[in-house]
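Known limitations

Files may contain more than one protein. Parsers should not assume a single record per file. Below, a two-record file is shown to illustrate correct handling: read the sequence, read the token line, then continue until end of file.
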Amino acid sequence: MDFSPFLIPIVGMMIPIVAIILKHRERVERMRIEAGDRYAVPDTSKQDGRIEMLEDRVAVLERIVTDRGLNIAAQIEALRDQRGIDDALAARSEARTAARSADLG
């Protein structure tokens, strides 16, 4: 076999380059595994509380839909009207309080 005089230095330079690349890949894979472990362990107490809250909300929605029939839109409008009335009463009460404060001060 006839080896080229350039082949030996090329192979000599390739060995450290390949070693650096493999070491980098190993670090990246180790970081990926650690990140996966960090996110793989869920906080079950938080999830249980959230699931329970969502189940309660679904139960309420089911009750609204099945118990009250089709007059939901009317009830929503009534709540909006009530909110408007509550806002007006609160504004009137604040105005009275401000007037009394001005009279006393």
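...continuing to the second record:
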Amino acid sequence: MSHVLGSDVAVASDDEESGADQKYSITVEKNQILYTLLVDNIGNVSVLLDKGMDNVPPNLDPQFRNKASGVYRLKGELLAVFEVDKALELLIEFG
């Protein structure tokens, strides 16, 4: 098991699993409570520059619009950007 620790984020993966079946967990702390986000698949990985981020469009669903920091307009897709704290608020609200 490998761990990468940051100031308030930990990432763990199981080295024994094959790349196709590999699962990740990201643990964050908010208000002295630990939350673990499970990632079962990593799709396309892209480097996106801050200057390419647009404001959140007004027609985005209000529950997401109020939590998103911005969006990237990709080929045929809209990628919403959420700060960890705001994403946790969204998950707690609907969890």
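Parsers that stop after the first record will miss the second one. For reference, the second record is described as follows. The mean pLDDT is 74.
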